[in-house]
Amino acid sequence: MARSFVAEARKRVGPKRLRVRLIIERLAAAHPEATIALRFRNPVELLVSVMLSAQTTDVNVNRVTEQLFQKYRRPEDYLAVPPEELERDVYATGFYRQKTKSIRGTMRLLLDEFGGEVPRRLEDLVRLPGVARKTANVVAAELGTPQGIVVDTHVRRLSQRLGLTKHDDPVKIERDLMRIVPREDWGRFPHLLIWHGRRVCLARTPRCADCVVNDVCPASRI
């Protein structure tokens, strides 16, 4: 499916490197409020929120962290309670044992090697337990130092539909996007696709008639 989108894109809507700037401009105008849905007040809360968001919704994470962040304010706080207590506190996010193990390991490494501060560099972030490239990309971008492009299910689907990639693998999709998306847009580009994917370019029934980029989208039904 993705390959046919790319082939059609070349014939019908022009080179992706030229289209991507127009796509960003239009989506930014259509979704000016496109930002991360997770609620946090500092880098440690951001990191914990993103770690907890695996396999659950942002709404659910925000519901849990509303109380969690009143109790745990510093990296030391996550290590000051028994693991079982932290497990109970994050239970509602699912996979609570693994998440607790990852959070405690991360906090220990932050204290041991980073002075209790969340690092900004991607190569440092991915050293933290439970922090893979996607999580690291989210954290780095939200801290103002994007070094890659976040690829979630929405970014993957819309990138394929828009003919910006022919791949299914998130790593390869990210590589394709990094080549064509202006670096200054690496942070906001995923948010624009995520918001558009949730509101207009739905997985099963895309609302092409309401889409601001349907004329430059090879998958458009218009």
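The record above closes out task 2.4. Task 2.5 opens with a second protein, given below.
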Amino acid sequence: MSQKFNLMAEERTDQGKGASRRLRRAGRVPAILYGGGRDPRPLSFDHTALLRNLENESIFSSILTVTIGDVSQPCVLKDLQRHPAKHQIVHVDLQRVLEDVEIRVRVPIHFVNEEIAYGVKQEGGVVAHLVNEIEVECLPKDLPEYIELDIADLKLDEMIMLSEIKVPEGVVIVDLTHGDEHDQDQPVVAIQRVKVVEVDEEAEEGEAEVAPGEVPVAGAKDEDEDEDEGKG
């Protein structure tokens, strides 16, 4: 079961861009609560408190409790807008949750035993995360905080497909519920060979200079070597 989050909200009566800017200057985040067969409800949250909660990745895959006055409403976080240059939340979208209605939420994948995976430990490969989160559909009570994927037995040049992931009872992966399952399937994680970059030993003299922090390439000469050759 997902971790519990309690968020205190205030009703938002003024709407529009101007009202939203005033809220942000006052240290609050404009938000909207929708769904559940009811009208959308404009809200606002304390920016500092919201940022503190967002430090925990579980908030994106948990049932949140939003309290307005003396009324509480379970919901999920559907969208989050951040300022492109500042450490600031610009707007939040929340969806009401009904206990008997299925919801769709994106949950993170936690990869287990990466360092001791056979393809890494025994064959010298590297782990490549191809998908880091998946969208699942389930009742609110069945929502997992994350999906755990053990890759201990994964070998070099092997991969695990989306259809191979085991999810808790009552949970389905959305991409595998529409159309042909094989058409929607995709690789999630793989162990790949380490790529070796070859250096051109016949690099032209003008390209042989090495920038600070770089490793000299084969065939490059430094100034001292050039001076020694000149003296000969």
